[in-house]
Amino acid sequence: MTTVLDGGLSNALAERGHDLADELWTARLLRDAPDEIAAVHRAYFAAGATVATTASYQASVDGFERSGLSRAEAEALVARSVTVAREVRDELASDGTTRLVAASVGPYGAVLADGSEYRGRYGLTRTQLRDFHRPRIELLAAAGPDLLAVETVPDADEAEVLVKIVADVGLPAWLSYSVAGGTTRAGQPLTEAFAVATGVDALVAVGVNCCDPDDVAPALDVAARVTGKPGIAYPNTGQGWDSGTHTWTGTTSYDVTMAPGWVAQGAAWVGGCCQVGPADIAALAAVLGQKSST
């Protein structure tokens, strides 16, 4: 049975009237309006998703401290991203559906809020990347998610650092790259990129997210061949991101009828990323036979 993931958090919050133009992005609402994040988790669960991805993609202790919070307050907000999602999951538990909370672990470039997660190659050493990622992952893990969503990774070197931390932490996790054509966003061949996941027992799925939908199928082929692990696929709508204006441009190419093909390629986890909303996830769940479209 295919696990249906949720869609984009930022677009769902924007549709609810929130301005996400500052560098904290969705993480700002962990401080200012956590009930709104909870409402989006509920909307995706109602649409047929069985995984809530937390609002921690762009959350970091340093980022919250730059906004004026103390370190203790910042650490509490990172953990709150998991708590909010867990509370929504638990309030729906009486219907017997198994739902999961995936703690989002975005790349280093996400906290820079300048589009770096679509380029990689930040000029940091692996030690610097490890020193950034480990404390945040440990904070998220301590808050009690079901698994970690190591996502939108643009660079195989960063992925290798993240995979080693995940193996140490011991929680199940998925690894998904942001890709463009046949390479990572940093330009590395996908065979090289997916090789970092081989032999890592903690990784329950490997694949791609926040990419053009047309890039999914070729990447899943490589991921399956290199790792032998179940695939994961949750592309964006194929639109372009303008980091200067913090807007998406172009038209959508997200088509839920592509999803059965991804499943046939071995994708056990399927959903959507930026600009994919609850209505899209409802249609996806219907196509995959998980729930009637709403």
Radius of gyration: 17 Å
The CATH topology: TIM Barrel
The first-to-last residue Cα distance is 20 Å
* Oligomeric organization of the protein chains: single chain
Total domain units: 1
Give the biggest sheet: 8 strands, parallel
Helix content: 40-55%
Text of the CATH class: Alpha Beta
CATH-scheme architecture: Alpha-Beta Barrel
Record field, number of beta strands:
12
Order of helices and strands: EHHHEHHEHHEHEEEHEHEEEHEH
Provide the CATH superfamily.
Homocysteine-binding-like domain
* Arrangement of strands in the largest sheet: 1-12-9-8-5-4-3-2
As a percent range, the share of strand residues is: 15-25%
Overall shape: it is globular
Name the average pLDDT: 92
Show unreliable segments.
none
Summing up helix and strand content along with how strands pair, one would put the structural category as: alpha/beta
User: Total helix count?
Assistant: 12
What does this entry look like structurally?
Its EC number is 2.1.1.10. With 294 residues, the protein is α/β, with parallel strands linked by helices. Helix content is 42%, strand content 16%. Helix 7 crosses helix 8 (156-169). It is globular and about 50 Å long.
Topology:
Blueprint: E1 3-4, H1 9-15, H2 28-32, H3 34-47, E2 51-53, H4 61-66, H5 71-91, E3 100-105, H6 108-112, H7 126-142, E4 147-153, H8 156-169, E5 173-177, E6 179-180, E7 183-184, H9 190-195, E8 203-209, H10 216-227, E9 231-234, E10 240-242, E11 247-249, H11 259-264, E12 267-270, H12 278-287
Helix pairs in contact: 3-5, 3-12, 5-7, 7-8
